[in-house]
Amino acid sequence: VTISEAYRIGDAVGMVMRTDIGGGSAEGVLRSQLPLFGTESVASFSNEKDGFKKFSLSFEEGLRPIPWIKTTDERERYLDSLEITFIYSKSGNGAMYGISSSVPQYVRKNNKNEEKNTFSVRYIWIEEEEVNTNSAGVIMLLTTFLACAIILLDLFCLSDDDKTMDGSRYIDKYEDKNTEFPNSYTNEQTGKWD
């Protein structure tokens, strides 16, 4: 079993099976039942000795689980097959980006020779398209440069009539000695600031 985010094609992916027996305890699985990174395969599972009613599979040390699956449906049909789809990238260090499961397929098994408590899980792998991060970086750099240029032009191309950098236009208005302030700012009896 290989550690997450470092898979090569054909490496076994860690998997844990949880069942409703024992309060959802984790069960070990056989190496032949593990999915192989980037390789489609089918694994067979048996429920004969444990007799669990539902189960869930978790991959990459429990970080990527699938929903609980019942081994029998409401019409007393037995689980026959399940497909689990992995989205992965093999560029750089191989990594899984998503896991989903299909609708379970149930069948009626009446014949005594048929194994009622066995089902198969098919692992399907879909490779994600590679993303070119260099072009995205260039676009972000150009956008940042353009935004900075607009800000600098706004700062240095101001006219004195509109604004001043030190705010003196606004200060001069209130330094005029003849300007009367509203009564709410001065004490009416003394005429001084509160």
Question: How does this structure look, described?
Answer:
It is elongated, with a radius of gyration of 35 Å. It has helices spanning 133-156, 168-175, and strands at residues 15-19, 26-27, 41-46, 54-59, 64-65, 69-70, 78-89, 95-101, 105-107, 118-127. The chain contains two helices and ten strands, in the order ββββββββββαα. It has 194 residues and is an alpha+beta fold. The model has no long low-confidence stretch (mean pLDDT 77). It is 16% helix and 28% strand.
List the helices and strands and how they pair.
Blueprint: E1 15-19, E2 26-27, E3 41-46, E4 54-59, E5 64-65, E6 69-70, E7 78-89, E8 95-101, E9 105-107, E10 118-127, H1 133-156, H2 168-175
Parallel strand pairs: 7-10
Antiparallel strand pairs: 1-2, 1-4, 3-10, 4-5, 4-6, 7-8, 7-9
